[in-house]
Amino acid sequence: MLTRRAVIIRGGAATAAGASVLFLWAEPAEAGPILAKTKNIPVGGGKVIKGKYVITRPSKKVFRCFTAKCTHQGCTVAGVSGGTINCPCHGSKFSIRTGAVVNGPATRSLARKKITVAKGVIRLA
Fold it and tell me: How many CA atoms lie within 13 A of 63 on its CB side?
């Protein structure tokens, strides 16, 4: 005859064993698409990628990624210079560090995107 304690212990062991099997069968998450190589993003500048993203490099080891869509009227930003991401339509400028508005008419920051940087490659996370 099994005691209540024995049933609980056996049930817990079975659950732990099942969880281990599930963990071993789980496949690793795929890395996101490659956006750029780090060597192609200048320190203190950046680059618009496929008209969808803008990757900036505020300092040698820091990379940021933002949407390339201006928050004023949706134009695609044209480039990065002078420490800002620049929109050609109405002159809005955004910080290469934070995506915050530096010069209007835009009033909202660019949306930040998560990236990974490894082995000289920048990918969406």
Answer: 25
Surface-to-core class of residue 2, CB atoms within 10 Å of its CB (0-12 exposed, 13-18 middle, 19+ buried): exposed
Q: Is residue 22 part of a domain?
A: no
Asked if residue 63 belongs to a domain, the reply is yes
Residue with tokens 């680059």: 47
- 8 Å CB contact between 35 and 122: yes
CATH of the domain at 68: 2.102.10.10
Q: How many residues are present in the chain?
A: 125
* End-to-end Cα spacing for the chain: 54
0.85 exceeded by pTM: no
Q: pLDDT tens digits, residue range 30-62? A: 578 889 999 999 999 999 999 899 999 999 999
